[in-house]
Specification:
This protein is an alpha+beta fold. The protein has an 11-stranded antiparallel sheet with strand order 1-8-7-3-2-12-13-21-22-11-9, covered by helices on one side. Strands 4-6-5-19-20-14-15-17-16 form a 9-stranded antiparallel sheet. Strand 5 and strand 6 form a beta hairpin. The radius of gyration is 21 Å and the shape is globular.
């Protein structure tokens, strides 16, 4: 479907108008849509799928068409693939990079006639702390620590969700605000007829493939509130946080060992900022051409998900315990999402710091890594900090709390 682009395929709308009208257009026509800002490029892009969102039983990144993967946490559930029937970029104007001439013309006509239905003020209620919710999570962490002491696993990541009622939500405005506030995060809006709208700002890269040659992933763990007066080199990390990050790095290295890959570059751990939080981060890079692993992206994606940073170690035991004890469906939280084979690059991120948006509510999600040294109250506060990644931005756009 790739084609030459002319000046006529540009629409002069600012970013807020473009996101608002494209989202309204796709929702009204039940089209799949993904809009994202990759921190590597800083460019806001999007794809539209005119047909039913496809499912992929087994993800083979190297063989897929251009599009956007949206995968749930449960690895037994199939991911969605939003095919790039149209690919566009939003900068000072909306520009179509690929797609059929007829489809692009139809979208252009619709966008010039559509009003900004999805933008406006934000009204969000029920943000006060729920005491029962807090105690339930503390009890969950206590059971996790008991299971660790009993030798069932060495780490597990219990999570929780929280639902707030909404009167309205300025989705385009929040997307732009997240871009500004969390410059180092993967900021995205995903809309499908089956699952509604999801939005987030994830700091955690899962798999990046560049030019069909370089593979990259990261180990991200340990969480503290960001303090502007403390430089990254002066941050003090506890033994528990250091060990937690080491477990995630070890998990990745063990995945390399399973496929007998010994040549990789490791950098870190380093302290990095992600909006209102800081984490410990280690990068792993592999030259797929030099090592002869041309399909490393697909192989590692299957091995990595779900990572120890969002599930636990050993994987099977932690996964089983969470299924029995969390007692709610994570859905797409802690799954993965991102563009595939777009402009010679694939970038998949763990779906963290995200929210599910329904007509009358917003659902937030967060988890905390639990080890034998965990303190339940502190893990609760960590989930609060993580939820505040989005809540702080929403509060700035709220008109009546």
């Amino acid at each position: 479907m790739s084609k030459a682009i002319t000046e006529n395929e540009k629409v002069r709308l600012d970013s807020l108008q473009a996101i608002s009208r494209i989202l309204a257009y796709c929702r009204n026509h039940s089209y799949g849509l993904a809009i994202w800002r990759d921190p590597l490029t800083g460019t806001t892009q999007g794809v539209i799928d005119f047909y039913e969102t496809e499912y992929s039983e087994k993800v083979l990144l190297e063989e897929m068409e251009s599009g956007f993967l949206f995968a749930p946490y449960n690895r037994n559930d199939n991911p969605h693939f939003i095919k790039a029937c149209v690919h566009f970029v939003i900068d000072s104007e909306l520009e179509f990079l690929s797609g059929g001439s007829y489809e692009i013309q139809k979208i252009r006509e619709a966008l010039t006639k559509t009003s900004d239905q999805t933008s406006g003020s934000t009204s969000l209620n029920d943000l006060t702390e729920n005491g029962r919710e807090q105690q339930e999570y503390i009890n969950l962490v206590e059971r996790a620590v008991e299971a660790i002491h009993a030798g069932k696993f060495i780490k597990v990541v219990p999570s929780r969700s929280r639902t707030c009622k909404i009167g309205s939500l300025d989705i385009p405005g929040l997307f732009m605000a997240l871009n500004k506030t969390y410059a180092n995060a993967f900021v995205s809006i995903t809309s499908t007829p089956e699952h509604g709208i999801w939005m987030g700002a994830s700091p955690e890269l899962l798999v990046r493939l560049t030019e069909g040659r370089f593979f990259e992933t990261i180990a991200l763990a340990g969480t503290q509130p960001y303090r502007e007066e403390v430089s990254p080199g002066d941050v003090a990390w506890t033994q528990k946080e250091i060990e937690e990050q080491a477990l995630v790095s070890r998990y990745i290295i063990n995945c390399f060992k399973k496929i007998r890959l010994r040549e990789f570059e490791e950098a870190g751990p380093k302290t990095v900022a992600a909006g209102n939080l800081i984490h410990l981060k280690t990068r792993f890079i592999v030259d797929m051409e030099a090592t002869g692993f041309s399909n490393l992206g697909s192989v590692m994606l299957e091995l990595l998900h779900p990572t120890s940073a969002i599930c636990g170690m050993p994987l099977d035991a932690a996964e089983k315990w969470l299924k029995e004890n969390e007692r709610y469906d994570r859905e797409f939280f802690s799954g993965y999402l991102g563009p595939v084979n777009i402009q010679d690059q694939t970038s998949l991120f763990v779906n963290l710091r995200c929210m599910k948006i329904d007509n009358s509510s917003v659902r937030f999600f967060a988890g905390a890594g639990v080890t034998e040294d965990s303190r339940p109250e502190k893990e609760w506060l960590e989930t609060e900090m993580k939820m505040n990644t989005l809540l702080n931005v929403i509060r700035e756009h709220t008109t009546d709390l």
